Amino acid sequence: MEVATATEASAPAASGGAARQNHPFPWLDAAISEPYYFLHLLAFFSYFAARSAALSADDGGEFHDRLLRRVSFGDPRLLDPDRVIWLVTQLCWLMRIGVGVLVLQEIQAVLVFLVLFVVKIVKEETWETFLADSLLYAKGLLLAVTLIIDYWLTLGYFLGFVVIYAVAQQPPYDGLGHSSHLTPLQLESLLTEEPTSRFWLVEFRTSFSATCIQASSVLPELSNIYSNKNISFGIIDLGHFPNAAAKFGISMWDHLPTYILFDKATEVARFPEVTIESKVSVPKVTKKLLCQHFDLDRRLIEYLST
Among its keywords, does the record have Transmembrane helix (predicted)? Predict the structure, then answer.
């Protein structure tokens, strides 16, 4: 029953990933079909409408109050045409200054975002991490800009982002490469009863962990390079099989994702290693890090030389 359930659960994800890769604009398809990206885009584009509404409200309220504070209704100069022209000029000047300061802040926010965007696109290895960090920076800058307009608007956006975080989740990488979704029973069978490969490199992840989502493309991409008859790659979602975590000595709340290299039924190496130092800090998962940690280059050379 466990094998059938896992196979049925992974089938829609695989078909959805294949359909998206065949789409002429996969990024556009993801932005529309994935609630996480769609809600963020909706929030960002709503800024233009909120900005216009907030400025219109200020034009009829704040600037009008400034004008009334400058002149008393009992001032006989109110009937002076020159005085009226001066007041109108002052009002227009205040409006231009207010809008000009806002536009300047918006330009500065866009420039800061572009700098961070370029830095991240150069440094980050996975697309999921890049998108998560870019959205985080965009949300912070949007809150900073709206704070200039109206702090109630800032509070509204902040609550909106909290709601998005609660109801939507960043989707993981939907490709498999040459890896396979496995259940614990399937893995046990592959390691003992059906030794089709000597080595199995298995990623243990959960769908609710942001770290797992951001590293979800690492193992499939490694499998495209290093998968052969000597080593195979698999993925187990501990969110579906939480009892398997204790069996493999994995904490559901720490050090996810966990990668374990099996030589048939024997564990050869794992990342992160269970040590006192690993409880303090764990390096970010990258293809280079896993390749070095599990000696994938050496194992590939050994396979090609036989």
Answer: yes
Query: Three-state DSSP class for 264?
Result: coil
State the Cα–Cα distance between residues 145 and 188, nearest whole angstrom. 54
Question: Is residue 268 within 8 Å of residue 199, measured between CB atoms?
Answer: yes
What per-residue string of b and e applies to 211-230 under the rule 16 or more CB within 10 Å gives b? bbbbbbbbbbbbbeebbeee
CA–CA gap between residue 50 and residue 71 (Å, rounded) = 31
Amino acid at 188: E
Do 196 and 233 contact (CB within 8 A), yes or no?
Answer: no
DSSP 79: G
List the alpha helices (DSSP H) in 168-231. Answer: 184-192, 210-214, 218-226
Where does the chain show beta strands of DSSP type E?
Answer: 179-181, 199-205, 231-237, 258-263, 266-271
Decide: 142 and 164 in contact? Cβ < 8 Å: no
Residue 217 and residue 86: Cα distance in Å, rounded?
64
Structure tokens at 80: 């002076």
Q: Are 104 and 132 in contact (CB under 8 A)?
A: no
Is pLDDT above 90 for 259?
A: yes
Q: What is the pLDDT of residues 208-226, one digit of tens each?
A: 888 999 999 999 999 999 9
* The model scores a pTM over 0.85: no
- Kindly calculate the radius of gyration of the chain based on its CA atoms and give it in whole angstroms: 28
From 226, 127, 124, 125, select the one nearest 175 (Cα to Cα): 127
